[in-house]
## 1
Amino acid sequence: MDVRFRYLLVAILCLWLTAAAKAQDSPPPPVERVPTDKSAPPPKDNAKNPPRSDNVPAGESSSKQTQIDVAAPSDDVKAHPEAGLGNGDIDEFTPYNPMKAMKDVEVGDFYYKKENYNAAISRYREALDFKPHDAEATFKLAEVLNKTGDTAGATENYQAYLKILPDGPYAKKAHEALSKLKEKMAQNSAKQ
């Protein structure tokens, strides 16, 4: 009798779970439609209204208060040369996304460990696109550039890291790497 009771409980549980799953799959109840006001005048047809003579498109306000100026300031290129917008046009905009940047650093670390340095460089740079001035991505990019022999790029990124986090967790390594790179550059200059 005890075994039969257990089977009965299992059967009831299965039926209950099946019914719950079917209830979740059922379509939602129909949405009630709100009646429209039939006494309201019909919307105006823009084809019947010719454009205004003051060069303002139909349906837009001529008020200067509602117009938004999205142009860059005249001295923007001089004030921000790192933006690289010499002609004033923006070709592409990458939105700030620290989660994607963090994932790119993680994937860059994977490629670095596999000694696929070009892929690691690409991922660290992409991380910096999604989160500019990211200290970890900057330092790791400097490390991989140093590995590939790009001393100028490595020096630039080590210095950028130290500018972001002068006392950060990689500051000691960055100072050591910079001093080694300076020695290496001095030796190369002496040979020439």
Note: The two ends are 97 Å apart (CA to CA).
## 2
Amino acid sequence: MVTREEFYVDSADGIHMIHGYRWYDPERKPKAILQIVHGMLEYIDRYDELARYMVSEGYYVIGHDHLGHGDSVSHSSELGYVGKHGAVLWLRDIEQIRKMAAAYMPKLPYIMLGHSMGSYLVRRYLIYHGKKVNGAIIMGTGHQPTALIKAGLLITYATMIRKGTKGQSKLLNHLTCSGFAKQYPDNARTGSWMSRDPQVLLSALKDKKMNYDFTLNAFESLFRTIEEVIDPKRASRMPKTLPLLILSGDEDPVGENGKGIVRFRKMLTKIGMKSISCMMYPGNRHELINDLDKKQVFLDIRDWCDSVVKEV
């Protein structure tokens, strides 16, 4: 039996409310906690199927909508806007949710899973708080060249001068989601950059919580986050023995069809990370938990989490 409870808590800025869910089996003591950190232009409820599966396998699952996403906004006009200190608040909110889960279920092994933008947020979280978790799953990630991220920041700041922090940029959109979509011109019938399942795209196009653009200050927060995690000197602050699992589709444009994953893993090896596992799924695109072989992805996530729990 899976129970899902909705919650609202104060954001780290003390102004906004953060919305989230926790999933658990009230008749069963969980063996570990899994915190899910969602991606750009989406929200935590899209992980409901994975969360319910993991509860059925003995886990307590928690996750929230980031600032500027989902139901962590008071009005749809706030979607995509994260305020002046978005990157800082994203990180603080993740830690706040971790503390909440640990208070509900003390002394349990703790695993964090981040997808897409959430993968970069988890990577940054591990730099500052890596000792507070027992393992991390990095899914749908990449490892962009530093020059590209700096160019993105320059475009962001230049456009801010004309449009302000709440302005938007077609060029920045092209560097991210809209640019990825153009790689699959027949995506209404054959799938999309998100998934090979056409229904995933069709559902997303109808979803009001996914059809908006990032403001310039949100892009700044995103690029600042990526800039930090691709820096080997900063990344080297992660605990070297922390188990990491990297999951990616080999046709995921965020991971440059595998090239970015190779660069990411090389950096992890170079900075001395001791426990790195990596799974590449042939033909899969960006959203592994929504692709045609998602059941295998669920199994792989469970098996790896179980292996981490056994070692704690």
Note: The CA atoms of residues 111 and 135 lie 5 Å apart.
## 3
Amino acid sequence: MGHALEMKSVCMAAYNGEKYIGGQVRSVLLNLSVEDELLISDDGSTDGTWDLLCSFQREDGRIRLFHGPHKGVNANFGFLLSKASGDIIFLCDQDDIWDEGKAAEVEKAFRQNRCCVVVHDARVVDEDGRVLIPSFMDYRHSGPGALKNIWKNSYMGCTMALRRELLEYVLPIPEGIEMYDQWIGVLGDLHGGSCFLHEVLFSYRRHGQNVSSMEHYPLPKMLRNRIVFTWRLLQRQARGRKRL
């Protein structure tokens, strides 16, 4: 892995995000060079999200807009990943705020570590920006390892970036699994390794409209999710072996 700057793609899934998405778009663009791109897929918003995004695109040619597949957040991120051109691909929610220098720190972590996924820390804030949890990694006991993260997922998409070569294993994201970020992270553990960077690089906003939840599922659903995930993972690994 060389020291030359690599093209970065940021994949942002959007849905009825008019209230917060403008601040997030601005914070992302401040982290990107002129060669990078911000891909945003709107999954059928009924508020002013699409019009707002179009106004941003008219001002900045690095923004690429798409209408999503309307099949939920997993399918929307899978769609975005299939459109990304960058060597390093960031996953991004619509309602957070990146710190200045976030992308550069993640890129440095890729250069310094032999890995296909980089995960960094985040502060959890409320809708007004007040800090609720200073370290998401400490809160979730985050760390690498396929078995660890199948049993208790500590991957969160908006804290993650991946190398382009991992897409060979990740895509398509299978139907039936609960969390796209767990899928990407575990496949990163299995194919190149995952690096956990203990630096807080953005504000993860929690409010009433978040798609993801920080609460535990009921036990029957947790068991079902693990069974389905493991089955899909075994199928994908078998597919990869057949290609060899």
Note: The beta strands are 8-14, 37-42, 63-67, 88-92, 97-98, 117-125, 131-133, 160-163, 194-205.
## 4
Amino acid sequence: MHLFFDLDGTLTDPCVGITRCIEHAMFQMGQALPVGTDLRRFIGPPLQDTFRTLLDTDEPKPVAEAVKHYRDRFSRVGMYENEVYPPIPGELTILADRGYTLWVVTSKPHVFAEKIIAHFGLFARFAGIHGSELDGTNTDKRDLIAHVLRAESIGPADAWMIGDRGHDVRGGVANRVRTAGVLWGYGSREELVEAGADIVLQEPEELSEQFRGEGA
């Protein structure tokens, strides 16, 4: 059995890095954030969607420029303004020991995801890390999960997608992959249920409680 883990809001808490990088990008664009904006709601969804919303435009040029400013700071500083949820390393070890094959499946570009996973010493727990491309390919979780299933020759019935936001769940549903929404990240129970989550987990320790069988 294969378990696909989202990164931001599922394995790690990236709030400081992501929100500061969004603020940096908007400043570089000469744009003020709308009063009362809670930037935490942009943790998880693709960057392009975030800046379409914040810049109130569908024009590709300003969105791409904002993404460039974001990534400039993120690649230098922001990716390390981050922390692993404390129970996660132990939970991953339990699941791997039970025979589950673990993957990172994130909308974040894989070049950043790999560095983050390595920085926190989690690389050995995963069979592989899949993310989007810098040009925006596979930022949509529906496309990304389809890519992972094809690339790794995994049948949908043999996989779960685990993530904290509705787009994680919708990506799994679109590919007939079972889904577990998690509440220690940045999505609400309502968001996850509405997206079609098969189960919703409250705390990281529930991962090993839910996946108790022999993963192999």
Note: The beta strands are 2-5, 12-13, 83-84, 101-109, 128-132, 159-163, 178-182, 199-201.
